[in-house]
Amino acid sequence: MSQDQSPPNFYYFLCNPGSEKFLKEEIRLIYPELAFAYSTEGFLTFKETRRLGKTLRPVFCRHFGKFIRRGSYEEIRSKWQGKALYYSLSGEIFETYEYQSGDWVKEIIKVSDNQYYFGEFKSGIFNSPTPGGFSTAVLPEEAPSRAYLKVIDGMKYMGVNLPAGDTALEIGSSPGGATYALLKQGLKVEGVDPGEMAPVCMENPNFIHHKVSIQDFHVSSLKDHVQWLYVDMNLAPEGSLREIEKVVDAIRPSLKGAFITLKMTKFELVSRVPMYLNIMGKMGLKVVMATQLPSHKQEFLVYAE
Ligand SMILES: C[S@@+](CC[C@H](N)C(=O)[O-])C[C@H]1O[C@@H](n2cnc3c(N)ncnc32)[C@H](O)[C@@H]1O
């Protein structure tokens, strides 16, 4: 029997600083074919010790690719003069270009002053739409919170367009960064949160505040049919999912998509991520993607339709 003599593949992953331990654990549990090789803040590499038997797409990363070589910038450029994205781990974008879904894209990542990685990734839903998965969004001064960026980054990552005039239900809407982003897109928003909403949201005629916790909220008090669901509560995932189940059940006929942020309130939750995705499936939602966004802290987004 012939043996595969080709050198082993290495993969690199970019995650938000602070999420390295989640990614490492996720790979250990879900992709045992990959052995940890190296990490620095926001960047990890793994060696393929056995053939990967499934599509690679960990939740706790923004972007990943297949390692080709590393060295100084000059060494890498001397062997590759073609088009490549070029950026640093701190988010400086030195070179970029337009590519299409399905393209294999080369990239040079500045990991430190004298260490550069050269690799490639296949562009598409499983990988980031921006170099390194860094955000291209700008937080407006008047946005009530940084959660504004989660809406913009989430739409961009999923390639989803929210048409003006649609209605979004946001659970955990205070102080209003995400609501403000949705209102700016021309959506009508109904927010559920016992906390105060910023005046920039309250004064907008397209916003309705249901100032109660989700446990006390009755879906019959919704003023409109809901096309988009946003959830961002500071509750453990089990609590968030339990509370949104009754809402999803009621709004499913008109629902086009759900952006659900789940908080990693403790490290042990990594092993439960597949179960969370399963629970959403049982609610009748089709999970399209689960990923970390550049605007996330210890949390991740599940986008479902
Ligand atoms: C991370 S903040 C949300 C940020 C907000 N989406 C924004 O864009 O500014 C979490 C919110 O969840 C809300 N929350 C926590 N438990 C809740 C519950 N049971 N029902 C409704 N909201 C809840 C909190 O009041 C808090 O405002």
UniProtKB/TrEMBL annotation:
Gene3D superfamilies to which the protein is assigned, alphabetical: Vaccinia Virus protein VP39
GO BP annotations listed: methylation
InterPro entries cross-referenced by the UniProt entry: RNA_MeTrfase_FtsJ_dom, SAM-dependent_MTases_sf
GO molecular function: methyltransferase activity
Domain of life: Bacteria
Name of the protein in its database record: Uncharacterized protein
Source organism of this protein record: Bacteriovorax stolpii
